[in-house]
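Design review, sub-item: ligand-bound model
Attendees: FS, YL, KQ
YL presented the inputs for the nickel (II) ion complex:
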Amino acid sequence: MAILKIARMGHPVLRRPAEPVTDPGASEIKRLIADMIDTMRDAQGIGLAAPQVHVAKRLVIFHVPDEGTDEESEDDPSSGPRPLTILINPEIEPLGEERTLDWEACLSLPGMMGMVPRFAHIRYRGIAADGALVERVAEGFHARVVQHECDHLDGLLYPLRMTDLSQFGFVEELRHAAGASGEL
Ligand code: NI
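KQ shared the predicted structure:
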């Protein structure tokens, strides 16, 4: 296992669509997952997508911490805390047109944050590390994290989703304006 270098905004690997994983059980994929977990934990991130570690494959990992969820929704699996999740070849289906605005940060834009619109309710599916199919309905911060990570697989960083760039800047300057969350 190893801590990998994280690509920052401007690196071409973050701008191009990633390729599907053809053999989710391959030893190289297992090693990539283990290294991504090490890398995310070392960077104290909430999520990480393979292109962020210079691998253009459709694979993301994330967790939804307690502090990223509403107090009243902790018992609701669609929006409450989620343990570490690995998704290979993930797909997202919006459930309705409703969008919500909230702050996001990203390990590929260290020290920065922005206010990003996302679908409020989604269904997502993908393949877990053990080959099982994962399918969940998500809302709130959980839905936001999944949309952020899967955008990385299509070459999109969160500033490209923003509609008001006046709400984009350095965490140290914006902190007073935000209940800041972790880096994705
Ligand atoms: Ni990110």
